[in-house]
Amino acid sequence: GRHTTFQSRTKRGFEVPMGSWLRTSLRERVEETLMKRNEILGIGIERKAFRELFNLHLAGERDYAWGLWPILSLALWVDKYYHS
């Protein structure tokens, strides 16, 4: 029946459109969270270097979400749990 077809499918991953989100709905959050700091997270990530990478991502030249998202995620966590 109906469930047999569904159960026999191979497992498929779910891809999150993080690259697109960083260019649209998360763009302001990146600006607010990371662009106002001289050094990001105190671990040697310079704002200028991050800005260059983010600008390339925004221009659509390449998808740098794989590098931008973990930094944003960690910065938000640090702001919430470490600096509060």
Radius of gyration: 18 Å
Q: What is the average per-residue confidence, as pLDDT, rounded to a whole number?
A: 84
Biggest sheet overview: 2 strands, antiparallel
| Strand percent estimate | under 5%
- First and last CA, distance: 54 Å
Structural class: mainly alpha
Number of strands: 2
Number of helices: 5
SSE order: HHHEEHH
Largest sheet, spatial ordering of strands: 1-2
Detail the poorly predicted runs: none
Determine the fraction of residues in helical runs and give it as a percent range: 55-70%
Spatial shape: globular
Describe the protein in words:
The chain is mostly helical. The chain has a domain at 39-84. 61% of the residues lie in helices and 5% in strands. The chain contains five helices and two strands. The chain has helices at residues 2-7, 18-23, 27-34, 47-59, 65-82; strands at 39-40, 45-46. It has a two-stranded antiparallel sheet. A hairpin with a 4-residue loop joins strand 1 and strand 2 (45-46). It is globular and about 50 Å long. 11% of the residues are buried. The mean pLDDT is 84.
Question: Notable features of this structure?
Answer:
mainly alpha, two-stranded antiparallel sheet
Please describe the topology of this protein.
Elements: H1 2-7, H2 18-23, H3 27-34, E1 39-40, E2 45-46, H4 47-59, H5 65-82
Antiparallel strand pairs: 1-2
Give a quick precis of the structure.
The protein has 84 residues and is mainly alpha-helical.
